Amino acid sequence: MGDAQRSARADEADGDERGVVETLERALPGRVLRRAADTSDYSHDRSHHPWAPAVAVVRATSTDDVATAVRVCRAAGVPVIARGTGTGLEGGANARPGEVDPITGTVPPRANVVIIDLQEMNRILRIDPDSADATVEAGVRRSGLNPVLAREGLQFVAGPGVDASLGGMAATRASGTNAVKYGTMAENVRGLTVVMADGTVVRTGGRARKSSAGYDLTHLFIGSEGTLGIITELTLKLTPIPEARSLTVLSFRSVEAAARVVQRSLQAGADLARAELLDTVQIAALNAYSHTDFRETSTLFIELSGETRSLVGQGERLDAIAESEGMLERRSIAPDDQERVWQVRHDALPAAQALRPDAYTWSTDVCVPIAHLAQCITETQADIEASGLVAPIAGHVGDGNFHLAFVLAKGDDAERHRAAALYRRMIRRALSVGGTCTGEHGIGEGKMSDLIDEHPSGVPVMRAIKRALDPEGMLNPGKMVDSRGE
Amino acid sequence: MGDAQRSARADEADGDERGVVETLERALPGRVLRRAADTSDYSHDRSHHPWAPAVAVVRATSTDDVATAVRVCRAAGVPVIARGTGTGLEGGANARPGEVDPITGTVPPRANVVIIDLQEMNRILRIDPDSADATVEAGVRRSGLNPVLAREGLQFVAGPGVDASLGGMAATRASGTNAVKYGTMAENVRGLTVVMADGTVVRTGGRARKSSAGYDLTHLFIGSEGTLGIITELTLKLTPIPEARSLTVLSFRSVEAAARVVQRSLQAGADLARAELLDTVQIAALNAYSHTDFRETSTLFIELSGETRSLVGQGERLDAIAESEGMLERRSIAPDDQERVWQVRHDALPAAQALRPDAYTWSTDVCVPIAHLAQCITETQADIEASGLVAPIAGHVGDGNFHLAFVLAKGDDAERHRAAALYRRMIRRALSVGGTCTGEHGIGEGKMSDLIDEHPSGVPVMRAIKRALDPEGMLNPGKMVDSRGE
Predict the structure, then answer these.
(1) Has residue A299 been placed in a domain?
(2) A48, A142, B359, B424: which has the highest count of C-beta atoms within 10 A?
């Protein structure tokens, strides 16, 4: 549906808004929130992008609930947005505010969309230790899943530091610190149950470890951010818990040296389980926030995992490479302290925020071919220096992925514009070396123009797929790709 | 385009057939074959599915050539089929014979399609050892690529035993013996150049190790068998050559015991590089064909790879599990003999064919959750026994994938029907435990009805995507999904 059509339908829906909500309440009694005070919490993610309270929230408990809600909303012409934990960083689950009415000059107080909240779909439906797979509802979180899997010696490895829902992680194609060894959500999901724009239920993939049967719908829905269908269940690939893990913290004079250690280790076939880079500003922020005493210079957190005996040999090789790159210091973290040190790393964003009083953070995300990583980071550091902004850097260096966290004063629009301009340059730098505008945070509404810059020939294909699967623009409108400009 | 429309257009094209070929010759001088004797070799794969000589073959040398050919053919309404080495097993690249004319009762002698042969697009465009990636044209074969990569200590790991082209492997979502450790083509391709049905050129993915930027077009084209676009270039993920490899051949009393060894090893976190199962009939065929003396019982070929020191520990664990499952014999293959023994394994299909004089083989392909593998194989063996057919079994047991090779007498239709019925039962068995009708051979024209059985809710979505990206049915018509029955 073109925007003109959508607007026309949205206008009808404004008049019929109460009608939709009442139909939803009849169809799903007790599952619908409608007061702005109640829907607000569900109407935005953790980004700085604008939002308004949705007209209603459906707290779904099953795939059938989701299908029912989609059908009711479609009949009324009111779009829907699927939502997990709301921990996204690009506005992917935001209810977008309506536009200024050209006659009255007012903005509608509510976003004319219905949020379908999936957090109560949190059942683990099946675990098969022999085939190392499980099927879960979309609202299950890793924190709920992994303790249950651990009883079988298994784990689910993909995902960010934040305790997101599996459905949201799949919809965003999330990854995190484990991706260097185990891959992203794309490599760890075998099949999906998806509610389509017309309310039909589609099952993709399956339980086999591989398949050549038909178009790869599983990967199409992974990363589609709820714009092609709503993921309600996932079949996950599980991984044995390794016998042992080692964690070392290595300090270097420069980002280049640290990045080169990881690059050379991977080239030598090292099986790095995690390889995290923190720049001087970020490590200082961690020290202040978590009361640690890491040397304040370019730092790697390296985890190895596997059979106990193999870790010794792997560690020796890593040390040899690190020494040849001028390692300043090496701390081996005792097994009992590893969890705590990883928590220090996962607190990078709040630690950054604590660098300035009354500040907020804006987390960025690019990913480049690993040989270009050091150069991209150091050029970005020089840009930060020149701009006078506060912006520590943390990176999943084994993937070539790094985040810069702008720490911005609330209400300072000029500073924010400086940050936005710097971010544009950082993205252009990433694209110029064959990288991507987002390694793991997604497009949402924040990076729609960057997506066009990155995939000028691909976006028309993406739009054709969007029109084919959601011709009326019912699913998460105004995100990812848009029919505007066609 | 519906079939009625396509037929109407095909009728026009029949009259205009010479016109298309002449336009192609003018646009791509010296690159067009037109005599049936010349086009026949390019008009079929290695399957038993029917074919007819295409009206022309374009031997493309660049993405531009492919785009030009597609545009000329589209203007004339003549569909195109992309072709690599023609080593497919499900008719994916076959030029389908025309249908019987209801008035004259004759079948057109030529298939009204143009084959675009990509084998001369065999340049390695770029290798970056530091980022461990490369970009190649679609006609490059692993046998051409890996010796060049080896100079940098790198390898490309995905792919079947046959020396197929990288483009064809991607289009079929191929895998092979390495998939248990390294994944399939889906996990080893980072980006593609694709010529679309209207002749536009699309670039998907990129060089970053991960990305959340937009719909995953790379995975959509991988496995689409040339029905959504023609892959002309690929950016590949490369893998360091391991320091050492070990190969052991383990003999067991039963398929169950052999399969359980692999399943338990994977559960224990073993990093198996290859895990191949051969049943008694297959190992006897290998012995006869390759003059080897393996014990004629259920057999595993297990490869471990990595650092020399780690192989010892891994091997000890594997042996302990194998002994607890009643291993009958264990042969450690000396490093210098490993290549030769793998060649024996890769010759499984000709070895099967040699079991009967003047026979042909029909290679099948299902994949199931690994816990169901032994049961699926033994039930299939019982079915073979009852049917009186000759059909050895070889399996990529670490993936739950196995092939049964029917060895059939030429011209014996009754035997072939018995084989087809047995294959249907084998597929139904796989689907009933959550498996797939094809682990790595693809759908082509041989498994279109099985695809519907496996993905009853997914096929309508696949058809919607096909219509969106190829509305006129220009690309590999009558394969994979079809608009018939809509």
Answers:
(1) yes
(2) A142
Residue (of B84, B99, B98) closest to B45 by Cα position: B84
Same-domain status, A72 and A179 = no
- Tell me the C-alpha distance between B378 and B388, whole Å: 15
Q: Do residues B98 and B202 both lie within one domain?
A: no
Quick one: three-class SS letters along A431-450?
Answer: HHCCCECCCCCCCCCCCHHH
- Of A240, A257, A292, the last residue of a domain is A240
Task: State how far the Cα of A442 lies from the Cα of A437, in Å rounded to an integer.
Answer: 9
> In terms of domains, do A198 and A278 share one?
no
- Domain ranges, residue A65: 3-120
Q: Tell me the mean pLDDT per 10 residues along chain A, length 486.
A: 44 58 97 96 94 97 98 97 97 92 89 97 97 97 97 94 95 95 97 98 98 98 98 98 96 96 94 96 98 98 91 93 98 96 95 96 96 96 97 96 97 96 98 98 96 98 97 96 60
Asked whether residue B280 falls in the same domain as residue B418, the answer is yes
Are residues B353 and B359 in contact, defined by beta-carbon separation less than 8 angstroms?
yes
DSSP tag of A98: P
The pair of structure tokens assigned to B445 is 């024209």
- The predicted pLDDT at position B50 comes to 92
Number of domains present in the structure of chain A: 3
Note whether A229 and A250 are same-domain residues: no
Cα distance from A458 to chain B (closest Cα, Å)?
Answer: 6
CB–CB contact A212 B442 (8 Å): yes
Tokens matching residue B397? 């047991």
Return all residues near A349 (Cβ < 8 A) that are at least 6 apart.
Answer: A361, A363, A405
Integer angstrom CA distances of residue A122 from A59, A137, A166, A188: 12, 5, 10, 19
Q: Is B269 part of any domain?
A: yes
* Domain contains A463: no
Of B269, B450, B455, the CB nearest to A242: B269
Chain A window 247-286: which residues touch B at a Cβ cutoff of 8 Å? 263, 266-269, 271
CATH number at residue B209: 3.30.465.10
Q: Are residues B221 and B265 both part of a single domain?
A: no
Which runs of consecutive H residues, i.e. helices, occur in B135-192? 142-150, 166-172, 179-182, 185-188
pLDDT at A485: 42
Region class of A484: left (phi > 0), else alpha (psi between -120 and 50), else beta: beta
Q: Regarding beta strands B54-59 and B111-117, do their DSSP bridges make them parallel or antiparallel, or are they unpaired?
A: parallel
Contacts of A399 in chain B (CB under 8 A): 208-210
Adjacent-strand bridge partners of A203 = A193
Is B100 buried (19+), middle (13-18) or exposed (0-12) by CB count in 10 A? exposed
Query: Is residue B133 domain-shared with residue B230, that is, in the same domain?
Result: yes
The pLDDT of residue A1: 41
pLDDT level of residue B17 (50, 70, 90 thresholds): low
Q: Which chain B residues are within 8 Å of A452, Cβ to Cβ?
A: none
Residues within 8 A of A (CB atoms), B 37-76 only: none
Q: Does a structural domain hold residue A332?
A: yes
CB < 8 Å to A317, chain B = 307
Asked if B367 has any chain A CB less than 8 Å from its own CB, the reply is yes
Task: Supply the mean pLDDT for chain B.
Answer: 94
The residue out of A398, A432, A466 marking a domain boundary is A432
Locate tokens 């949205």: which residue? A10
Long-range contacts from A120-123, C-beta under 8 angstroms, 24+ separation? A120/A59, A120/A60, A120/A61, A121/A60, A121/A61, A121/A62, A121/A63, A121/A167, A121/A232
CB-based contact B455 A309, cutoff 8 Å = no
Do residues B273 and B134 both lie within one domain? no
Q: Which one, of B36, B23, B42, lies nearest residue B94 by Cα?
A: B42
| Predicted local confidence at residue B7, as pLDDT | 45
Asked if the Cβ–Cβ distance from B455 to A401 is below 8 Å, we say no
